[in-house]
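Feature request, filed as a ticket because there's no other form

It would be nice if the structure record came with a short human-readable summary line next to the tokens. Right now we just get the raw output. Example of a typical job, pasted below so the devs can see what we mean:
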Amino acid sequence: MKIFAAIDIGSYELSMKIYEISKKNGIKEIDHIRHRIELGTDTYTKGKISYEKVDELYEILIHFNSIMKNYKTDDYRACATSAIRETDNTTIILDQIKMRTGLVVNVLSNSEQRFLGYKSIAANEGDFNKIIEKGTAIVDIGGGSIQISLFDQDSLVTTQNIRLGILRVREKIGDLQSKTSHFESLIEELINNELYNFKKLYLKEREIKHIIVIDDYITYIIRKVGGDFSKEYMKSEKYMRFVEILKTKEPMQVAEELGFPYEYASLFIPSAILLKRIIEEMKAELIWTPGVTLSDGMAYDYAEKNKIIQVSHNFDNDILACAQNIAKRYMSNKGHSEILNKLALKIFDSTVRIHGLTKRERLLLQIAVILHDCGKYISLTSYGECAYHIVMSTEIIGLSHLEREIVANVVKYNTMEFIYYEKVLASSKIDKNSYLIIAKLTAILRVANALDRSHKEKFKSVNVKRKEKQLIITVNTFEDITLEKGLFREKADFFEEVFSIRPVIKQKKSL
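Raw output as currently delivered:
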């Protein structure tokens, strides 16, 4: 059994959950400590967290560290989200946290943050697998933004971020509350345009029956007011009626009637209104609030990676599905990508001993294959550069910013001249290890792409085998592969430079 602590440095509160994790009993929460502190208020309005709040942050974390020691935790993970991620003095704050508390804090990219939230939902395997059988949206309402992820027939279709979280909304229009008797209407006006664009781009001809909500306040409403057939579920009609009643009351009155702390009252109304508008646009019938948090996702991720629990859901497939939908949006050649994927993975798997890359880099290679020609949607001449900008501008759930940058560079250098590390340093913050990953994945992708240069899928089968200083790629085909052989040398040169082994094409003709 492991004692694990998960610390969430959020926009409007710090929380820590302590878990017992074992193969026999799974993940069991044994304590939950919360402290109200609005770090996001400073970040979203001033761009920098004040000294007073930073000092308070340190004191809270020192207290959390003391609690962890009392529980004799085996391990911990401390994660910060948009309030720390978007502040100007992030690096200084993280350094001072380590110096003053001994804790190492990981600043999550938005896609990493939402993926952990998604994992915490998927941990409820029975309910989750059943509810996503029909069109489903996961709506993750945070302090800085909302993440909407769409599922269709058990597959993740898209995930998009809207920078209108409840704290950001309150700070934008909070001063107007005293000047109007219809504050909720201002909230709706603020988010309507963003939702209209989302609907136009991603909800066209898509039916959403269910909404899964990750949010402190909506969960509280449904469990306090009472769901329709359990404490976690509520029909949309009932929720909408409740919100209409809610709109007639002052935030403090709502807090008193529902019995939650007054200091959260100012965030309660924006959260309820945001979900109301999302339900209206999607015409969803049912809301599910599993009551999970980012901390639950951290615990699940820890248990999964340390093989303490058995995970039936394949999260890598969700990441790949997200990439495939991006490729579809930019009209990439699906048939070519599927062949290229098989070729690239054969080369990767046959050269593990010489490249030393992990399963995670194998996934990044697959994503690069899927997105390698998306830039052609914009330009047929500089599509490598265009593909780079598409990847860097498009969120891929589950990838860190660095991983997305690795993928973007691989698709770029697939066709463009490779830039060496000394020159890269002048325009990028990529570290040496990440640079080497880019070089290795680029070399593999280039060779694989050269084998299907005509995009005619000529090969019945391909066998890859290492023999001394050569990587023998035997292709089974009766087709003329003069083009592939002729254009292969340049790609082989770079592969040899990176791995000190030369790929060679051999043709085998058999029925």
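Something like this underneath would help us a lot:
The mean pLDDT is 88.
The two ends are 56 Å apart (CA to CA).
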